[in-house]
Amino acid sequence: MSCDEQKLDKLKALHLILLGAPGSGKGTQAGYLKNNWQLLHISTGDILRAEVRADSELGREAKAYMESGELVPDDLIIRMMEERLKSIGDANGYILDGFPRTVAQAEALDNMLARIVHKLDCVVNLEVADTELIRRLTGRRVCSSCGAVFHVDTMQPKVAGICDNCGDKLIQRKDDQLDAIINRLEVYKAQTMPLIEYYQARKMLVTIDGTIGVPQVAESIRQAVSGGL
Ligand code: AP5
Protein backbone atom coordinates (compact mmCIF):
# COMPACT_ATOMS: atom_id res chain seq x y z
CA MET A 1 0.00 0.00 0.00
CA SER A 2 1.38 3.45 -0.91
CA CYS A 3 2.02 6.12 1.69
CA ASP A 4 -0.95 8.16 0.40
CA GLU A 5 -3.26 5.12 0.58
CA GLN A 6 -2.13 4.43 4.15
CA LYS A 7 -2.85 8.07 5.08
CA LEU A 8 -6.29 7.89 3.47
CA ASP A 9 -7.04 4.70 5.46
CA LYS A 10 -6.10 6.53 8.66
CA LEU A 11 -8.22 9.55 7.68
CA LYS A 12 -11.20 7.21 7.19
CA ALA A 13 -10.87 6.09 10.82
CA LEU A 14 -10.53 9.59 12.31
CA HIS A 15 -12.60 10.73 15.26
CA LEU A 16 -12.85 14.48 14.86
CA ILE A 17 -14.76 17.28 16.59
CA LEU A 18 -15.67 20.45 14.67
CA LEU A 19 -16.01 23.30 17.12
CA GLY A 20 -17.05 26.84 16.25
CA ALA A 21 -19.74 29.48 16.60
CA PRO A 22 -23.09 29.20 14.82
CA GLY A 23 -22.40 29.88 11.15
CA SER A 24 -18.66 29.22 11.37
CA GLY A 25 -19.05 26.53 8.69
CA LYS A 26 -19.10 23.30 10.72
CA GLY A 27 -21.89 21.73 8.67
CA THR A 28 -20.40 22.90 5.37
CA GLN A 29 -16.96 21.49 6.24
CA ALA A 30 -18.38 18.26 7.63
CA GLY A 31 -20.24 17.69 4.36
CA TYR A 32 -17.07 18.34 2.38
CA LEU A 33 -14.82 16.11 4.54
CA LYS A 34 -17.41 13.34 4.75
CA ASN A 35 -17.41 13.02 0.97
CA ASN A 36 -13.62 13.12 0.68
CA TRP A 37 -12.70 10.82 3.56
CA GLN A 38 -15.88 8.72 3.83
CA LEU A 39 -16.38 9.69 7.46
CA LEU A 40 -19.76 9.63 9.18
CA HIS A 41 -21.15 13.11 9.81
CA ILE A 42 -22.90 13.24 13.17
CA SER A 43 -24.63 16.60 13.60
CA THR A 44 -26.66 17.07 16.77
CA GLY A 45 -28.52 19.96 15.09
CA ASP A 46 -29.56 17.70 12.16
CA ILE A 47 -30.57 14.85 14.50
CA LEU A 48 -32.66 17.22 16.62
CA ARG A 49 -34.31 18.82 13.57
CA ALA A 50 -35.26 15.32 12.32
CA GLU A 51 -36.78 14.58 15.75
CA VAL A 52 -38.76 17.83 15.61
CA ARG A 53 -40.05 16.94 12.11
CA ALA A 54 -41.02 13.45 13.33
CA ASP A 55 -42.83 15.04 16.31
CA SER A 56 -41.13 12.56 18.65
CA GLU A 57 -41.01 13.07 22.41
CA LEU A 58 -37.40 14.33 22.13
CA GLY A 59 -38.37 16.63 19.24
CA ARG A 60 -41.27 18.12 21.23
CA GLU A 61 -38.94 18.75 24.20
CA ALA A 62 -36.19 20.28 22.03
CA LYS A 63 -38.28 22.49 19.68
CA ALA A 64 -38.73 25.66 21.78
CA TYR A 65 -35.08 25.68 22.89
CA MET A 66 -33.90 25.38 19.30
CA GLU A 67 -36.17 28.03 17.83
CA SER A 68 -35.08 30.63 20.41
CA GLY A 69 -31.40 29.72 20.08
CA GLU A 70 -31.02 28.20 23.55
CA LEU A 71 -29.21 24.92 24.10
CA VAL A 72 -31.26 21.78 24.59
CA PRO A 73 -30.64 20.46 28.15
CA ASP A 74 -27.46 18.44 28.58
CA ASP A 75 -29.15 15.27 29.88
CA LEU A 76 -31.27 14.92 26.69
CA ILE A 77 -28.30 15.52 24.41
CA ILE A 78 -25.96 13.21 26.29
CA ARG A 79 -28.49 10.34 26.24
CA MET A 80 -29.11 10.89 22.52
CA MET A 81 -25.38 10.91 21.67
CA GLU A 82 -24.58 7.93 23.84
CA GLU A 83 -27.03 5.84 21.82
CA ARG A 84 -25.69 7.19 18.54
CA LEU A 85 -22.01 6.57 19.30
CA LYS A 86 -22.62 3.08 20.70
CA SER A 87 -24.22 2.07 17.40
CA ILE A 88 -21.10 2.92 15.36
CA GLY A 89 -18.63 0.17 14.50
CA ASP A 90 -14.93 0.37 15.36
CA ALA A 91 -13.82 0.77 11.73
CA ASN A 92 -15.87 3.92 11.15
CA GLY A 93 -14.38 7.33 11.61
CA TYR A 94 -16.70 10.24 12.32
CA ILE A 95 -17.02 14.01 12.52
CA LEU A 96 -18.90 15.36 15.51
CA ASP A 97 -20.61 18.61 14.46
CA GLY A 98 -22.31 20.54 17.28
CA PHE A 99 -21.34 18.17 20.07
CA PRO A 100 -20.01 18.70 22.66
CA ARG A 101 -21.28 22.20 23.31
CA THR A 102 -20.84 22.52 27.08
CA VAL A 103 -18.14 21.36 29.48
CA ALA A 104 -20.64 18.86 30.96
CA GLN A 105 -21.14 17.37 27.45
CA ALA A 106 -17.36 17.23 26.87
CA GLU A 107 -16.86 15.33 30.13
CA ALA A 108 -19.71 12.98 29.25
CA LEU A 109 -18.13 12.43 25.81
CA ASP A 110 -14.78 11.53 27.44
CA ASN A 111 -16.60 8.89 29.50
CA MET A 112 -18.53 7.55 26.51
CA LEU A 113 -15.39 7.25 24.38
CA ALA A 114 -13.52 5.47 27.16
CA ARG A 115 -16.40 2.94 27.44
CA ILE A 116 -16.66 2.25 23.71
CA VAL A 117 -12.86 2.45 23.26
CA HIS A 118 -12.80 5.23 20.66
CA LYS A 119 -9.91 7.65 20.77
CA LEU A 120 -10.52 11.28 19.91
CA ASP A 121 -7.91 12.39 17.33
CA CYS A 122 -8.39 16.12 16.95
CA VAL A 123 -10.63 19.07 17.78
CA VAL A 124 -10.79 21.68 15.02
CA ASN A 125 -11.94 25.13 16.06
CA LEU A 126 -13.23 27.29 13.17
CA GLU A 127 -12.67 30.97 13.91
CA VAL A 128 -14.94 33.59 12.29
CA ALA A 129 -15.78 37.16 13.43
CA ASP A 130 -19.31 37.95 14.64
CA THR A 131 -20.15 40.34 11.76
CA GLU A 132 -19.37 37.60 9.22
CA LEU A 133 -21.31 35.00 11.26
CA ILE A 134 -24.38 37.26 11.20
CA ARG A 135 -24.00 37.85 7.44
CA ARG A 136 -23.73 34.12 6.82
CA LEU A 137 -26.64 33.08 9.03
CA THR A 138 -29.13 35.74 7.91
CA GLY A 139 -28.42 34.73 4.28
CA ARG A 140 -28.32 30.97 4.78
CA ARG A 141 -30.93 28.82 3.07
CA VAL A 142 -31.20 25.08 3.60
CA CYS A 143 -32.91 22.33 1.65
CA SER A 144 -36.14 21.25 3.32
CA SER A 145 -35.49 17.62 2.27
CA CYS A 146 -31.77 16.81 2.19
CA GLY A 147 -30.45 19.64 4.41
CA ALA A 148 -27.91 20.92 1.83
CA VAL A 149 -26.69 24.42 2.76
CA PHE A 150 -26.67 27.51 0.49
CA HIS A 151 -26.31 31.28 0.88
CA VAL A 152 -28.35 33.94 -0.91
CA ASP A 153 -25.21 35.87 -1.95
CA THR A 154 -22.12 33.70 -1.69
CA MET A 155 -23.34 30.13 -2.26
CA GLN A 156 -26.29 30.52 -4.56
CA PRO A 157 -28.15 27.50 -5.93
CA LYS A 158 -28.29 27.14 -9.73
CA VAL A 159 -32.04 27.90 -9.64
CA ALA A 160 -33.17 30.42 -6.99
CA GLY A 161 -34.96 28.76 -4.07
CA ILE A 162 -34.32 25.20 -5.33
CA CYS A 163 -31.81 22.66 -4.00
CA ASP A 164 -29.06 21.71 -6.49
CA ASN A 165 -28.85 18.19 -5.05
CA CYS A 166 -32.44 16.99 -4.83
CA GLY A 167 -34.57 19.71 -6.48
CA ASP A 168 -36.61 20.40 -3.34
CA LYS A 169 -37.48 23.79 -1.85
CA LEU A 170 -34.93 25.89 0.06
CA ILE A 171 -36.10 27.39 3.35
CA GLN A 172 -34.77 29.69 6.06
CA ARG A 173 -34.30 28.05 9.48
CA LYS A 174 -36.43 29.64 12.24
CA ASP A 175 -33.29 30.14 14.34
CA ASP A 176 -31.70 32.11 11.47
CA GLN A 177 -33.88 35.14 12.30
CA LEU A 178 -31.73 37.98 13.69
CA ASP A 179 -33.08 37.80 17.30
CA ALA A 180 -32.34 34.08 17.55
CA ILE A 181 -28.92 34.52 15.92
CA ILE A 182 -27.90 37.15 18.48
CA ASN A 183 -29.02 34.84 21.29
CA ARG A 184 -27.15 31.87 19.76
CA LEU A 185 -23.93 33.92 19.63
CA GLU A 186 -24.33 34.87 23.31
CA VAL A 187 -25.08 31.27 24.28
CA TYR A 188 -22.02 30.15 22.29
CA LYS A 189 -19.73 32.60 24.13
CA ALA A 190 -21.06 31.70 27.57
CA GLN A 191 -21.45 27.94 27.23
CA THR A 192 -19.39 26.61 24.33
CA MET A 193 -16.28 28.83 24.22
CA PRO A 194 -14.97 27.32 27.49
CA LEU A 195 -14.40 24.14 25.42
CA ILE A 196 -11.55 25.90 23.63
CA GLU A 197 -9.61 25.92 26.88
CA TYR A 198 -10.84 22.42 27.76
CA TYR A 199 -9.32 20.92 24.60
CA GLN A 200 -6.29 23.24 24.58
CA ALA A 201 -5.37 21.86 28.01
CA ARG A 202 -5.57 18.34 26.50
CA LYS A 203 -3.37 19.42 23.54
CA MET A 204 -6.05 18.42 21.05
CA LEU A 205 -7.15 21.79 19.71
CA VAL A 206 -6.24 23.23 16.32
CA THR A 207 -7.65 26.67 15.48
CA ILE A 208 -8.27 27.42 11.81
CA ASP A 209 -9.27 30.62 10.04
CA GLY A 210 -12.82 29.87 8.91
CA THR A 211 -13.12 32.94 6.69
CA ILE A 212 -11.15 31.68 3.70
CA GLY A 213 -13.06 29.81 0.99
CA VAL A 214 -14.70 26.44 1.70
CA PRO A 215 -12.06 24.30 -0.11
CA GLN A 216 -9.25 26.29 1.53
CA VAL A 217 -10.71 25.72 5.01
CA ALA A 218 -11.04 22.01 4.19
CA GLU A 219 -7.41 21.93 3.07
CA SER A 220 -6.31 23.61 6.34
CA ILE A 221 -8.24 20.96 8.27
CA ARG A 222 -6.67 18.19 6.19
CA GLN A 223 -3.19 19.55 6.87
CA ALA A 224 -3.91 19.96 10.58
CA VAL A 225 -5.22 16.45 11.10
CA SER A 226 -2.90 14.59 8.73
CA GLY A 227 0.23 16.16 10.25
CA GLY A 228 0.24 13.53 12.97
CA LEU A 229 -0.64 10.54 10.76
P1 AP5 B 1 -26.86 23.46 14.97
O1 AP5 B 1 -27.64 23.04 13.79
O2 AP5 B 1 -25.67 22.68 15.39
O3 AP5 B 1 -26.50 24.99 14.76
P2 AP5 B 1 -25.17 25.82 15.02
O4 AP5 B 1 -24.09 25.30 15.85
O5 AP5 B 1 -25.76 27.10 15.47
O6 AP5 B 1 -24.49 25.81 13.69
P3 AP5 B 1 -25.08 26.14 12.34
O7 AP5 B 1 -25.71 24.94 11.70
O8 AP5 B 1 -25.99 27.34 12.43
O9 AP5 B 1 -23.80 26.68 11.56
P4 AP5 B 1 -22.57 25.89 10.94
O10 AP5 B 1 -21.35 26.20 11.73
O11 AP5 B 1 -22.88 24.46 10.69
O12 AP5 B 1 -22.47 26.71 9.58
P5 AP5 B 1 -22.85 26.28 8.08
O13 AP5 B 1 -21.88 25.29 7.56
O14 AP5 B 1 -24.30 25.94 7.95
O15 AP5 B 1 -27.78 23.54 16.25
C1 AP5 B 1 -29.08 24.13 16.20
C2 AP5 B 1 -29.70 24.12 17.60
O16 AP5 B 1 -29.85 22.76 18.06
C3 AP5 B 1 -28.87 24.80 18.70
O17 AP5 B 1 -29.08 26.20 18.73
C4 AP5 B 1 -29.42 24.10 19.94
O18 AP5 B 1 -30.69 24.58 20.31
C5 AP5 B 1 -29.59 22.66 19.46
N1 AP5 B 1 -28.36 21.86 19.69
C6 AP5 B 1 -27.56 21.28 18.74
N2 AP5 B 1 -26.54 20.63 19.32
C7 AP5 B 1 -26.69 20.80 20.65
C8 AP5 B 1 -25.93 20.36 21.77
N3 AP5 B 1 -24.81 19.63 21.63
N4 AP5 B 1 -26.36 20.72 23.01
C9 AP5 B 1 -27.48 21.44 23.18
N5 AP5 B 1 -28.26 21.88 22.16
C10 AP5 B 1 -27.86 21.56 20.90
O19 AP5 B 1 -22.57 27.67 7.32
C11 AP5 B 1 -23.34 28.84 7.57
C12 AP5 B 1 -23.44 29.69 6.30
O20 AP5 B 1 -22.16 30.15 5.94
C13 AP5 B 1 -23.97 28.93 5.08
O21 AP5 B 1 -24.83 29.75 4.35
C14 AP5 B 1 -22.72 28.58 4.27
O22 AP5 B 1 -23.02 28.54 2.90
C15 AP5 B 1 -21.79 29.74 4.62
N6 AP5 B 1 -20.37 29.35 4.66
C16 AP5 B 1 -19.84 28.25 5.26
N7 AP5 B 1 -18.49 28.24 5.11
C17 AP5 B 1 -18.16 29.37 4.44
C18 AP5 B 1 -16.92 29.92 4.00
N8 AP5 B 1 -15.74 29.33 4.22
N9 AP5 B 1 -16.97 31.09 3.33
C19 AP5 B 1 -18.15 31.73 3.10
N10 AP5 B 1 -19.37 31.25 3.47
C20 AP5 B 1 -19.37 30.08 4.14
Which features does this protein show?
single chain; alpha/beta; binds BIS(adenosine)-5'-pentaphosphate; 15% strand; 229 residues
Please explain how this structure is put together.
This protein is α/β, with parallel strands linked by helices. It contains 10 helices and 8 strands. Helix 2 packs across helix 10. The chain binds BIS(adenosine)-5'-pentaphosphate. BIS(adenosine)-5'-pentaphosphate binds next to helix 2, helix 3, helix 4, strand 6 and helix 10.
Task: Give a brief description.
With 229 residues, this protein is of the alpha/beta class.
Topology diagram in text:
Blueprint: H1 3-12, E1 15-20, H2 26-37, E2 40-43, H3 44-54, H4 57-68, H5 74-86, E3 94-97, H6 103-116, E4 122-127, H7 130-139, E5 140-143, E6 149-151, E7 170-171, H8 178-192, H9 194-201, E8 205-209, H10 214-226
Parallel strand pairs: 1-3, 1-4, 2-3, 4-8
Antiparallel strand pairs: 5-6, 5-7
Bound molecules: BIS(adenosine)-5'-pentaphosphate.
